[in-house]
Amino acid sequence: MFRMLMDSNHGGTVQLHRFKVEYEEARPQSNAEDAVIKAEYFVSGKDKDAFIQLLGEKDHAVTPINQAGNEWIDGRVFPSWDEAERAIGMGEGTYFASLPLTTEEKLANLMLALVEGGII
Known about the structure:
A hairpin with a 3-residue loop joins strand 1 (2-7) and strand 2 (11-16). This protein has 120 residues and is an alpha+beta fold. 35% of the residues lie in helices and 28% in strands. The chain starts with a strand and ends with a helix. The chain has one domain (2-116).
């Protein structure tokens, strides 16, 4: 789970969710049995703690979100939400392997081939 901070010129920067806070919210003009469980997601402990203060005395549960396999994507910029989801689904190795080579990478591969071929 993540959010994206969108920039109209460059797409969006991925920020991984670190915490989920679940709490009960009573429906207006209903009894306590009609309360619904709501969830909010946070990218930092500071944001989570500020929200918990806003909850006051409401019961709540905090669950840390394990993002161990997704750390590579935190802070990266993608042109769209769909592209970021596609990258996460592919995984780090497959995603980076699917990207076109940069000019520097192409030159490095050419130089390696020339050296291995005994040309230089």
